[in-house]
Amino acid sequence: MRNVARASPPALLVLALLVAGCGPGSASGSRTTALTESGSTVHVVMRSLAFAPAAVNARVGQRVVWTNQDSSPHNVTYVSGPRFTSSRVSMKPGARFSLRLTTPGTIHYFCTLHPWMKATIDVSP
Asked: 6-53, pLDDT tens digit by residue?
């Protein structure tokens, strides 16, 4: 036990947060409320014939970027809520589509190629 290194106070804080589940690797536990956000961009992926996450929270002014990480084509098609211009009919694997959020409200969208793929964006002011 004599060779045990002492941790600095910042290292102990990081360790305590990780053990408590508050560290960078923790998850909310709910797929529908997960938000992948970097700065002013919200990311949604199309994978396994689903939008992930299926519901996101965002703010007016943020950009939403969808990336097709699936092996089949998809699209992002407006259904209801604050209006936006839908993506093109077919986004090939690897393709991206984005929009800037301008109006608060709940946006509903889906993929016309796979109608069970449905998702929402709750946009706050």
From this structure: 444 443 333 333 333 333 333 333 333 344 445 689 999 999 999 999
Domain of 84 in residue numbering reads as 28-124
- In DSSP notation, 60-105 reads TT-EEEEEE-SSS-B--EEEESS------S-B-TT-EEEEE--S-E
Establish if 113 belongs to a structural domain. yes
How many Å is the Cα radius of gyration of the chain?
A: 19
Assigned domain for 6 exists: no
How many structural domains is the chain composed of?
A: 1
pTM of the model: 0.70
